[in-house]
Specification:
The protein is mostly beta strands. Helix content is about 0%, strand content about 50%. The chain has a single domain, classed as Porin, CATH 2.40.160.10. It has 1 helix and 19 strands. It is globular, with a radius of gyration of 23 Å.
């Protein structure tokens, strides 16, 4: 993760750019830039040089009684709108947030929280086709996070229509998705105050639209995640598992997705970190025995449609090093995956090596 240094807009372009006045509000901008050199094993690399730039605009203020609020707008690479949120921090009732396309609320913030020196195993230039459990995090949603009690927080996130989209002011999502209805996430994060032990468990449920004929309408779309991390001085270690049930009825359609990961990271000193991580991904498809003459049907009482269900595994590992010099970061990752296409028969292995130079301001 980049460590951003906040710079008031007034420092960049005069007092007119800084909103500091009768309402005691401020606006700050942070940013980063990264240049990469990527080599792909078993694929056509072409030009290996890449780059990206990011900016984040944060407005904050204070209400009567000491409560605070903030607004964040993230500008992704090439100044493309990425995500935004409006947050209210109360004195004793926790934090309320309206999140747009951030992906980090509910269980979406726990898709892979294992210790690494730089990136997740699956985010090092290899296209893996892995499916991660996001709950309502990728849809515009509202959430509440409880105050900390002995380091523990409880979070609830809700989306009236979990369609994976975000709507502008005075707009609605309409028929963006007829697949899902409303959805909710719940997460319990039991991290201790000193951070030596952290565990989390989360669950998500989204209604399936009743008009869908390719879905098992006897239940809802469900996702779950559980993980545990330890810190012993400069060493961090952890593991987690997650799963998703799609309730598919279409022939050879994906029915379950599962992910597991673990990692160990060592902070050699304040500037240098190294890590090793592994990730496992599972996909199962509905079996042909689930169907009669090509027509889909729901299982009868006593049937086990998961028996003999085709399963495809994908495994990856990554070694990483990160070194910081003030606002400059030097990073390296070497990653291998054995089945990036998620195929059932012929596996397609892939390798990558990435060197990155990142700047934070």
């Amino acid at each position: 993760m980049n460590k951003f240094t906040k710079i008031g807009l007034s420092a960049l372009c005069g007092s007119l750019a800084s909103i500091v006045g009768a309402h005691a509000g401020t606006m700050e901008v942070t940013g980063s830039a990264e240049a990469t050199w990527t080599e792909l094993g078993g694929q056509v690399t072409g030009n290996p040089i890449g780059m990206k730039t990011n900016l984040s605009f944060t407005g904050s203020g204070e209400l009567d009684g000491g409560q605070t609020f903030s607004v964040l707008v993230a500008e992704g690479d090439k100044s493309a709108y990425s995500s935004a949120n409006i947050t209210l921090n109360t004195n004793s009732s926790g934090t309320f947030k309206l999140s747009s396309a951030e992906g980090g609320q509910g269980i979406g913030g726990y898709d892979d929280n294992m210790p690494t020196a730089w990136e997740e195993v699956w985010d090092t230039a290899i296209s893996t086709n892995a499916n991660f459990q996001k709950g309502v995090g990728s849809t515009t949603n509202v959430s509440w996070t409880s105050p900390k009690m002995i380091g523990t927080t409880f979070q609830v996130a809700y989306a009236p229509d979990n369609d994976g989209g975000s709507s502008a002011d005075k707009a609605v999502s309409g028929a963006a998705s007829d697949h899902f209805g409303s959805g909710f996430d719940i997460v319990l994060d039991t991290g201790t105050e000193n951070g030596e032990i952290n565990s989390f468990i989360g669950f998500s449920r989204t209604e399936i639209a009743k008009v869908k004929t390719d879905r098992d309408l006897s239940g809802d779309h469900e996702e779950a995640v559980v993980g545990l991390q330890f810190k012993f001085g400069p060493v961090a270690f952890g593991g987690q598992v997650s799963g998703e049930r799609l309730r598919s009825r279409g022939l050879n359609a994906a029915e379950y997705y599962g992910n597991s990961s673990w990692g160990v990271a060592f902070n050699v000193n304040d500037d240098l970190s190294i890590s090793y991580s592994e990730a496992r991904h599972l996909m199962t498809k509905t079996h042909k025995s689930n169907f009669t003459k090509g027509a889909s049907r729901i299982a009868q009482a006593g049937e086990n449609l998961n028996e003999y269900t085709p399963k495809s595994w994908m495994r990856g590992e990554s070694f990483q090093v990160a070194y910081t010099l003030g606002g400059v970061g030097l990073k390296y990752a070497k990653t291998k995956y054995d089945n990036t296409a998620f195929t059932f028969d012929a596996k397609i292995p892939r390798e990558s090596q990435v060197v990155a130079v990142s700047l934070a301001f």
